[in-house]
Amino acid sequence: MLNVNKMTHYFGGLRAVNNYDLDIKPKQITGLIGPNGAGKTTIFNLITGVHTPTEGSIALKGENIVGLATNEIAAKGIGRTFQNIALWRHMSVLDHIRMAHYSQLSYGLIGAFFNTPACRKQESEIEENSYRLLELFDIKQHADQNVTSLPYGAQRRVEMARAMATNPKILFLDEPTAGMTPDELGQMIKIIRQVHEDFKVAIFLIEHRMKFVMELCQHIQTLVFGELIAEGPPEEIQNNPKVIEAYLGKEDLT
């Protein structure tokens, strides 16, 4: 579904990512781990169009997406959340989810201006699907609240619901449990599993909590200084000496 081949990127003279490869199959949950500053979020930004790779190729369902704008990539099937919550400060929870649907609209400006039957039909479907997502992410009770009034964990769920409203084929989650309590962490694991099961969507996530990654992911990559040092199933990664060294240092291996 998603293929990244030998992706390299420089910021000025600094090489942030080097010869990065990725293959994500339909319905697969893939994790990307590594120490702070390894380049994980940069990889998300390169694939989703925030930056354009210096070298390499990115293909979504066989189509080259290098150079496309972020909204174009989202419309083609990649939804994402952000390491730092990126929500609109003066918008309700429900309006966040409604707004995200508009990348998928087909009725156009004329349809909106004349309120055509196609426009009314799609708007009704948006309303229905928005409430379905609010219920799935356990934020329906907050529908009319300003998003900034919500607890941190609930804001994270709003961001995920907004990403799912774009109808993605692949969902990118950048540290979805950052700042969460143990109870919120358990709830997030259940939600991600339900999203994966109900929507049959592939998931690519960055996460520092190893228990979370090992419990959810079928395939894991480890990144250090912009380069992959290991990848494979969870049981292989957690026992890989290079991975242990990257996290703990050589002295801790003895």
What does this structure look like?
The protein has 254 residues and is α/β, with parallel strands linked by helices. It has a single domain, classed as P-loop containing nucleotide triphosphate hydrolases (Rossmann fold, 3-Layer(aba) Sandwich), CATH 3.40.50. The protein is 39% helix and 23% strand. The protein has helices spanning 40-47, 70-76, 93-100, 108-114, 117-136, 152-164, 182-199, 210-216, 234-237, 241-248; strands at residues 2-11, 14-24, 29-33, 55-60, 63-64, 78-80, 170-174, 202-206, 219-224, 227-232. Strands 6-7-8-3-9-10 form a 6-stranded mixed β-sheet, sandwiched between helices. It has a 4-stranded antiparallel β-sheet with strand order 2-1-4-5, covered by helices on one side. Helix 3 (93-100) runs parallel beside helix 6 (152-164) and helix 5 packs antiparallel against helix 6 (152-164). The longest helix is centred in the middle third of the chain and has 20 residues, at 117-136. The radius of gyration is 19 Å and the shape is globular.
